[in-house]
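Running log. JK asked me to keep both predictions on one page so they can be read side by side. First protein, sequence followed by its tokens:
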Amino acid sequence: MEPFKSGVIAIVGRPNAGKSTLLNALLKEKIAIMSDKPNTTRNNIAGILSTDDTQFVFMDTPGIHKPQQELGRVLNKNAYIAMEDADVIGWIVDATQSFGSGDEFILNRIKDLGKPVILLMNKVDRLSKEALLKRLGYWAGQYDFTEIVPLSALKKENLEEVLAVFRQYLPEGPALYPAEMKSDHGLVFQLCELVREKILQKTHDEIPHSIAVLLESMEEKNGKVYLSFLVIVDRDSQKGILIGKGGDMIRDIRLSAQKEIKEKLGKPVNMELYVRTEKNWRNRESKIKEFGLDELSE
């Protein structure tokens, strides 16, 4: 009989490499929100997969990037701490993209940690076999990776191999979380993230980085859940865009979020969305902490 293993796997990579898509695919459940906007993930989110002989604790981290604001610095710090605390690092890269300065940035961090590093070559379904072999050879020359695993998170290809490889490098020991747990983040966090996901999906590039979502109130009456969310932006012009002409945009976001939250809770939902400007909040450490984006601070 195989010994029980459990451990933490930090999933790191450049923005948009597919970290959240992979996490959700491995867990067969939506744990992390997804959009095509860079830095969709802001918090270190543990996705917990328990099997008969293994507990995989995947840390979905913010995309590592050159920060432009204090918020970016905090997001990078969150990712670095996850890497330092992990038993294994899963570095996910977009197989269709060339090795760039962002990869160099991550590589320099990984080199100093002395941990097993599994290179996850994502989006291989978009390459011909010849192009994939060439790309694999190129990446193999960048660093002495413990293993290299090609996969497609979106099409859920080769995920069993990903788990088998990770298991090899996890320590023997008891489970870190109860078997029924799927995430270390509670319901309030998940609901706020669902609202933020809808904003990311429906607004243009000038909005996504500038928003934070807070749950102001939640109560249940006669089997119906009443929710009130506050959306923070850092400029008045963004508030106008988010509300939209005649309130069309905010209504569209509200209805889309309300539908998914209703499915998640399994109950009727009545939801309100309000928008407030907090000028330049992304450069204010106190606001970043207040909005729950620096969970790892002392």
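And the second, directly underneath as requested:
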Amino acid sequence: MPAPLRQAIAKAVDDAFSSQVGFLERLCRFPSTRGNEQDVQRFLADELTARGYDVDLWEIREEQLRGLPGFSPVVTPYSDAFNVVGTSRSQSPRGRSLILNGHVDVVPTGPSEMWSAPPFEPRTADDWMYGRGAGDMKAGLSCNLFALDALKSLGYRPAAKCHIQFVIEEESTGNGTLACLQRGYTADAALIPEPFDETLVMAQVGVLWLRVSLSGVPSHVAHASAGVNAIEAAIPLFAALRELEARWNDEARRPLEFAQVPHPLNLNIGRIEGGNWASSVPAWATFELRMGIYPGDDIDRAEAELRACIETAAMRSAYLKANPPIIIAHGFRAEGYSLTRDNSENAADAIGLLEAAHTEISAKPLVRSAITATTDARFFGLYGGIPALVYGPRAERIHGYDERVFLPSVRSVTQSIALFVADWCGLEATQ
């Protein structure tokens, strides 16, 4: 591609960047937590329609996904739950096809008083945009869309088929992206602009969620010895899980991709409930945990080991031995994924082209990283045979208070994606 055209593409992103920031602000005003994505999805479908894409807006059905590789148990039943895909088609297809993927769902905000401003009223200060979802990952959604807009403004579209996907459920199962595969959306490569500081994610952990329910014996606190405190019964189980976490993080079992990552597999006791009254010995308690696993780990074996850890710890209590905890899979049942292990020509070419685009825009080498979180890349790489690149803007405090994204990074990532699309798919004049 001639240098003047490459410069024109970068400038087209610059020229539209104020519109992109305004678009990102609109996205961040949608409180699109799980189960509440309908409005933002209809908004995005309208935006795609206005741009001339073939638009597919469909309701996800759990029964169509259950039993597929990569399916995770559903946390919130699917009702009025939609995916949106826009497709750009060329008149004379050539080049290689591409999926630009991103999720619209965001995690809960927590107490609003912990935020310096309302979490769904985005604000900008010192080149940072604040708001729930600004970083994770509505900025990335804007990067995908406005990268294609930049090409269109110059009179071009991808010369190969290009799908732009807006999916739900990434934060709890990933079943939204699985639904895209089930519906037949495939390509020669996929790119997901998750907020990992303009690095290329070469490996990511898998994730397991479990819900553990304990029963106790209620009693008035005046006769506490007559009862069994279900909340306190959970505490030794936490300790046993921490011991398992330490064993799983032993350097001897750490794969090469994570050799330089301290403590790659993280346990989190993310939610706990129990009891009904401060002066009553609690008769019930439930906690939910998250645990990481490595790429290549057998997920069935890992889940069985987690369950056995809890069950063995429970056996040390005379009461829990007779009243064992109930353990169910709940949400993420995600395998790890390593782009490093993809030896295909498409993977090598995609990495090389993205690296070249990034270096051209940022004047810095593309850093390759391994992350201790999971993304939807695994669906493409493990179940679709599609190399998946995870590369997005700089963001901070994602999943926390005062989440924010660095707008200059949003601009440069959009420029890099636009160049990558042009190089990977080729360009076709729209007239």
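Observation for JK regarding the second prediction: The longest strand covers residues 206-215.
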